[in-house]
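Translate sequence into structure tokens.
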Amino acid sequence: MTPEQEARIIIDKKLEEAGWTLQKMEELNPRASLGVAVREFATDTGPVDYVLFIDGEAVGVVEAKPTDEGENITVVENQSKRYAESEFKRIKKSPEIRFAYEATDLIIRFTDYKDEKYRSREVFSFHRPEFLEELLEQDDTVRNNLKRVPEFDETGFRDCQVTAITNLNQSFAENKPRALVQMATGAGKTFTAITQAYRLLKYGKMKRILFLVDTKGLGEQAESEFLAYKPNDDPRSFSQLYGVKRLSSSYIPNDVQVCISTVQRMYSILKEEDLDDADEEESLETYVTADSKTPKEVVYNEKYPPEFFDCIIIDECHRSIYNVWQQVLTYFDAFLIGLTATPDKRTFAFFNENLVSEYRREQAIIDGVNVGEDIYHIDTEVTQKGGQILKRYIEYRERKSRKKRWAEMDEDIEYDKSTLDKSVVNPSQIRTVIRTFKEKLETELFPYRKEVPKTLIFAKTDSHADDIINIVREEFGEGNEFCKKITHAAKDADTVLTSFRNDFYPRIAVTVNMIATGTDIKPLECLIFMRDVRSKNFYEQMVGRGTRTLSLEDLKKVSPSATESKDHFVIVDAVGVTNSKKIETKSFERKLGISLKELMLNVALGDDSEDTLNSLAERITRLDKRLTKKEQKDFVVIVGASARDIAYNLLHAHDEDTIFERAQELASSDAPNEKEIKKAQKSLLREATDPFFNPDARDFIENVHKNHTQIIDSVNIDSVLFAGYDSQKDENVSKTILTFREFIEENKNEIIALRIIYNESYKDRPMVIQQLKALYETLQQKNLTVDRVWEAYATKDVEKVKKRSTMAQITDLISLIRYEMGVVTELSPFADCVNQNFKDWTFKKNAGYLQFTEDQMEWLRLIKGHIISSLSILEEDFDYTPFDRKGGLIGFYEAFGDNYKNILYEMNLELVA
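Result follows.
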């Protein structure tokens, strides 16, 4: 046989698989079935290899070629077109040929001549006769419909979503088969995709859309969003308009318009193989089986032919689908839309470099869609260097069963960090990390929180996760509900995940891969890496779990002691993952320890380095989230632009793409030269830094910054946070203490006037608190707060400084001045002093003839709290909160009778002694 004859055998088989009845000219019966393919049909320009009949009418042609002509298959399109326009012999009225195929035994290309600017495309196999019949009955083609979709109603959509949908519409109108949407985690990728699916079904007249995910959890999450979605132009929900089905078996109903499926399940459906439900639990990023690196080949399935779906939306399309699972995507004759926050080179290549929308995380943070992160390092000797165990009797443990035994080692062993928690488990290393985390929570990471913020720990394996859970519970002194495992091996993982997201418990969850990507946990404020990550994309997806924004009201539902909305999260790096050359991930904040005032002044003095501008952008972005409406208006008037625009300019002043675009504008050329590019960057740097050359603008920003004290505290904490394991730690501490000493020296006269503070003379104390407030304002002008000074002494004189259990009071300034001036040898919170004195005084009173009732003790505790913040208690203070709720001075008199004045005098005297 000739190569073409060999190819014809395969082509015949593919036509028959697709439901076509094959005939020779001499046995012609075009109505023998719905679809008939007649070989060697004569035309006035020569015989065409196959003519396709639908219900007796000629509608298509197939031109067959041998394998070695596959590289020239597009050239054959001219031949197909010639036959399509020829006079068909033995047919009285020349048919209107609409469809054309060019085929070898390996490749099939298809053209629908009704498409405007029709273009051939490669298809997995021939379309079924029923499908071509449907196309013939439709008013127009899907591709033509997509050129005429109505204008998009932008109401309720973010700018990034509007851009994505608008550009997707353009991509479809231009008949581009693949499109990529890059959108930061939390920016609404799924919402955008559902909107596009709705428009494709309604205006594009598509029949079915496949929403493809790679884990069951993501499928459930997508299903919920589809069911809840309501379009702008219809009062009904998506599910009332179109059928939505998440596939959980091998059956796909014909009457649904949106199918949600994992890649794994869709592969098993096409192959008609059974699928273990457990195979849908783990992400393709970490999906490992014996043949996980072998490409998954599919074959023709007549139940679900290639034309079954018109569009496939691939969620998290950065995953490992391009070499192993690619045929699941390319099997269907469908448009492909990829969604990801972290594309790589494979992603761009697969989607034909058709990036229709790019919304990076940096911009999402500026826009308030995401929050940024602070990075805190915990380095231990074993983590960094591993360890050595000399030959001895030692404990062994089976990884899965956890069965323990003692046995003598065969030889000495040395292990490194790559072996840790796999073949060697060192409980001390885990304990050291967890214990340090617990200690730093209260002082540096999340001070003043009464409960542990929602924290997710990434472990290496399920065995490692179990070890971490046991040690977390022990170190925090908590029960089972406090810390839970959320891994594929955990039977109640979905239930625990729901509780972790919505309930008070668990406070800490430990996972391996299950919720490392894609899963929304908005209240999450801390990520602890106790495993390394080799993939940059996987790492960025893991970090994305913490980026979601959350209002104070919603945050308090699971973390009641939160005082501000979620404006950042913390990465605790216990394995050095953030230092990896492959990851190269840094927080925008590069200047921890330098005040906002100093940053702005440095810019005015000519520092326009990338680190400085990025850090300033981060500070301005966080401040923007705190501004009142009036402050936002004042910001524009005084500074010259909104805080968001200022941050945007700062962040993009060193961005290569932005610089190149500016150079193109300035040079009026698509290819600016090096000189023009430098000029463009200079222009961007000037725009970004100009506002900070205005002293009035700097003063305004600094004053607004001070008005939002949580912001000031956050910056100071960040300084200590990052410096905790930084070589600059001692330098920062020394600088803070030196500045505080200079403050005392510069304000010596005012401090002398306050000798009442430490010479045990307590009259005129209300005047003292006013003077103390004025003194504190002077201290703040040096960019120092009580918190920052206290932490500096706590770092320098660890054994002499007591921790504060509550937020610093202004009266703690008294304790700091006394300590620095040598009046006391230990630095204790002013509240501790008052609490101890209160305890001693009430004990002495109750030991005598006077016994306080519970109601009286409640009054006394309220007075103690007032003295902690105000130094003294006066009769007029009872007119205000919290005393007014108990009846004010009259209520106090009713509780203590004529002795009430003596009680007030003694408390004023004794509690501040």
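Note: Confidence is low (pLDDT under 50) at residues 286-292, 581-586, 709-728, 759-763.
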